[in-house]
Amino acid sequence: MEKFIIEGPTRLCGDVNISGAKNAAVAIIPAALLVEGICTIENVPQISDVKISCEILKELGVKVEWLTPNTIRLDTTHINSTTAPIDMTSKFRASYYLIGSLLSRCHSAEVGSPGGCKIGARPIDQHIKGFEALGATVTVANGRISAKADKLVGTSIYLDTVSVGATINVMLAAVLAEGTTTIDNCAKEPHVVDVANFLNTMGADIRGAGTDLIKINGVKELKGNGTYSVVPDQIEAGTYLLAAMATKGDVTIHNCISKHLESLTSKIEEMGGHVEELPDDSIRVWTDERAKKCNIKTLPYPVFPTDLQPQAGVVLALADGTSILNENIWESRFQYTEELNKMGAHITAQGKTAVFEGVESLSGAPVSASDLRAGAALLIAGMAANGKTELSNIALIDRGYECIEEKFTKLGAKIKRVDVEE
Ligand code: EPZ
Questions:
Q1: Helix 309-317 to helix 372-384 angle, to the nearest 10 degrees?
Q2: How many Cβ atoms from other residues are within 10 Å of residue 12's Cβ?
Q3: CA diameter of the chain
Q4: Full-model pTM
């Protein structure tokens, strides 16, 4: 087991390249199962959730070839199973996309219950509602989810809650269905649009992704033989910009889409930070003053993303004044605040609301990541804090960030990855 040893305080300065989006890549890789043949996917982040997705595809008979560290070629011509290994699917959330993909291509899917960050209940009732509306029979038993259909027929589906996972999964199941499907009250996140763009590149007929209503005209097959590049990671980009704010730094991120970051950059300006959009898909954020207090509410895109909430919490913990953070997506996404309080923060979290009484500085301490984004937040806190921070459970961070310590070290951070036995 590994941990990070972080020496602070550090003022982060310099340039960082943003990788492909985790939440797009972990959907596009299983979506390739809909293609009868070969597809090449570029800008794929080297993260553990991607690696395990590829291992599962191999188990299903897919030929997986890494052409470069960030480009994979998938040959799905000879799928020979529709049952994904339970021990592998329980390691991450996006394994649920195997259901929509295998149901669509093979009319049969069996996967273990999905794993993922412990940040709330995480039901999949809306996924199942969509599959059943298209004509599938879904059973959930013994830690497994199985879905079967003689045929899938297009229909109109209204999602009771705005869900990234359900929007993408039902879209996957509808691509090869007979007739037209409409999905209403959809999630509009950049990764939803990216999956639709990937499928359309491979021959699907999906319209309206990025709006509340998606329309899918079923097609006979996806021929593939195409190449698609994964969208830059909105959340990784935001993590580096908030790290600049927490360390009173000056950071320029490259290969990002500023439109995807508007809800964040407007909050950074409210906190007193300076934001400069640069011509070549880059954004610079800098400050040399203490952040100002600021209230934040998380909601589905395009409002402030829940996956940047813990990282923003570090800035609020060090801000001048009292800030309120409302987490409207997940029931228990404030576990990191207990760890920040060990570093000298003054945060009171209750249910979906946390009150941050800003402090002048944090001090290094042994802390532990409870989930992926909490881990990123504590890494930022360690860089801002005085002294040494020992951050454990960092395998959770490797699930979603490519080369995080190398990238932060390039910005001046002092981070060492050590084996606990050492
Ligand atoms: C995706 O999770 C992301 N994960 C999460 O990112 C992200 O926090 C979340 O969307 C919200 O943006 C991936 O893309 C792999 P949802 P997902 O379905 O799909 C309720 C990260 O850090 N709901 O949009 O699981 C649910 O309880 C991770 O990268 C139902 O009630 O989230 C929640 O309150 C963490 N029934 C809300 O909807 C359903 O069937 C949003 O969940 C599905 C969801």
A1: 30
A2: 25
A3: 63
A4: 0.98
Residues making up the chain, counted from first to last: 422
Q: Is 161 near ligand 1, meaning CB less than 6 Å away?
A: yes
- CA-wise closest residue to 362 among 348, 343, 375: 343
Angle CA(320)–CA(323)–CA(327) in degrees, nearest 5? Answer: 145
Nearest CA to ligand 1 atom 18: 163
Q: Which residue from 163, 170, 235, 260 has its CB within 8 A of the most atoms of ligand 1, so it is best to mutate?
A: 163
Query: Other CB atoms closer than 10 Å to residue 280's CB: what's the count?
Result: 6
Read off the pLDDT of residues 138-191 as tens digits, 9 standing for 90 and up.
Answer: 999 999 999 999 999 999 999 999 999 999 999 999 999 999 999 999 999 999
Residue with CA nearest ligand 1 atom 25: 165
Q: In the numeric block, which tokens belong to residue 221?
A: 């097959």
Cα 11 to ligand 1 centroid, rounded to whole Å: 33
Residue 100 in tokens: 């929509």
For the CA of 49, the closest atom of ligand 1 is 15
- Amino acid, res. 230: V
218 neighbors 180 (Cβ within 8 angstroms): yes
* Positions marked active-site: 117
Residue type at 386? N
Distance 163 CA to ligand 1 centre (A): 6
Percentage of the chain exceeding pLDDT 90: 97
